[in-house]
Automatic annotation (TrEMBL), chains A, B:
Name used for this protein in its record: LAO/AO transport system kinase
Similarity remark: Belongs to the SIMIBI class G3E GTPase family. ArgK/MeaB subfamily.
Keywords carried by this UniProt record: Kinase, Transferase
GO molecular function, one term: GTP binding
Keyword Kinase on entry: yes
Positions of the AAA+ ATPase domain: 54-226
InterPro entries given in the database record: AAA+_ATPase (IPR003593), GTPase_ArgK (IPR005129), P-loop_NTPase (IPR027417)
CC per GO annotation: cytoplasm
Pfam families: MeaB
Native organism: Roseovarius nanhaiticus
Amino acid sequence: MSIDIAQLERGIVKGDRRALSRAITLVESTRPDHRAMAAELVEALKGADGVDRQALRIGLSGTPGVGKSTFIEGFGGMLTGQGLRVAVLAVDPSSARSGGSILGDKTRMDRLSRDPNAFIRPSPSQTHLGGVGRRSREAVALCEAAGFDVVLIETVGVGQSETVVAEMSDLFVLLLAPAGGDELQGVKRGIMEIADIILINKADGDLKSAASRTCADYSGALRLLRKRPQDPEGFPKAMMVSALEDTGMQPAWGEMQALTKWRRENGHWDARRAAQARYWFGEEVRQGLLSQLATPEARAAMEELGAAVAEGRTTPAIAARELLERIGAGVWNG
Amino acid sequence: MSIDIAQLERGIVKGDRRALSRAITLVESTRPDHRAMAAELVEALKGADGVDRQALRIGLSGTPGVGKSTFIEGFGGMLTGQGLRVAVLAVDPSSARSGGSILGDKTRMDRLSRDPNAFIRPSPSQTHLGGVGRRSREAVALCEAAGFDVVLIETVGVGQSETVVAEMSDLFVLLLAPAGGDELQGVKRGIMEIADIILINKADGDLKSAASRTCADYSGALRLLRKRPQDPEGFPKAMMVSALEDTGMQPAWGEMQALTKWRRENGHWDARRAAQARYWFGEEVRQGLLSQLATPEARAAMEELGAAVAEGRTTPAIAARELLERIGAGVWNG
């Protein structure tokens, strides 16, 4: 594609959805010239038109089958109904492993995808975790610059994707299905620790009493966790929603707003955004250093020396020193 | 310390324990000159005296309280009683988080620590995971060169340490305590997938029937896992042992030997060692590239640009490009 950065910038600031789409495609590209342009675009948009545009970035995770698409359709529709503009992005670093489940699938969010105040972007098809995270963070920044009030960043409960999404979110919502109390342990401890609000979905019909028990179980479990400085009294909390019957959505949104207000007033919002910016800076630097292995010369040397190591002709440390010397990179320290 | 690599090499090959201890201290050092000497030593020992010395490397994991020290005392003592030489190393990348539990604690392995055919090395006090893993792998190579028949590599069930230990082990043993069936889910799925043998410890006294149930539960769970090419019929398997009553140790060792024999005969031993060597080569290279951030100049630039990013004066990608340019490293690709 031929790319005019200034034109893209103007389009995004005006809220032109086609410009936003094209810009996200640009930040998702792995071509070095595209990457350079993308970085310039994000930098330019940072201070565009002098307005401090900050969306509420909500990370949303849940295992397949929990009803994420239906929830987003209902929750997003409620927000646009209140005049808010909503963007939905997906981070799916493990598309190979999750068996091809598509996040941000527009066919499953039929109403929202036709809503003029909503923007849905399916997950990019890349598979490299570090890369996907960095690109998604920039896509979030583009949506923010485009004036969206809420950016929903959807992921599945597989591998490290929650941690990556938490590093680009202002608050993190875990969506769960009703279940017996014995399944409490199935939720990874790490996720419980980053969740701000746990929503028990499918609190309707036959599942209503199971949802109620699950909600009580998780409320109890959350009380056992150590208190975090970024939480006001009563948070993190578990609540029930029904995407199907469209109930519990407004209370959930109310709690998100209350939590956000408290964090803004107590300095936690800014502190978290600053810490996240530092984190992504470190990631960019680390990926930049590791990209020295991406040249054809480095790949060939990795292959040749890797074979020598595998066959026992040399040791990992000695071979690594030779590789770093050959590609003229790195300070070898064994 | 003043270091004579050739002397250390001769001492290790002769089985001199003081030489081995000093060499392990050398590979654990982070000083660049020590690192270079350590790499030379490991390389020199690789082909020392023309003998192909391969120890059986057994990774051993278990949460605190499961009775690891008592097990190692009993199991190690049984092996030395059969004329085998046994080394015990510890990998504890998370000493800060595990609340100061010491691995390879000699006071808890009183008999074994005084056994002339045993060598016990407590965990190094470093906290950097990548570093600890690489150093431990070299310590294993030193023990192998020193003629030990079995190297036990002990770790705790915290974080990523099992994966690191599995990457330097020929077989992996998970030690568990008897428990109700509902605690089955408490074991991380990832560990179940790398375990070759699960030992239910404390199968004695009042806990005997609980141990029997736990063993049956895990036997069932293991059968549900996908079969791996490196496993003969019946593996991975769960068995009961009692470190206290010293029962089940010989059957467990018999299974380890049977598994090892099958893997050796079917090419899996060599294939795994080759794959592990490649893995550690890659780790050495990655750590070498990232070590470009360890210079005072790089640290200062990280601090300065990190602050600019945190304050929103620039974006992570732009700041990363500037950092990589300043330290003259990396191929920036955003």
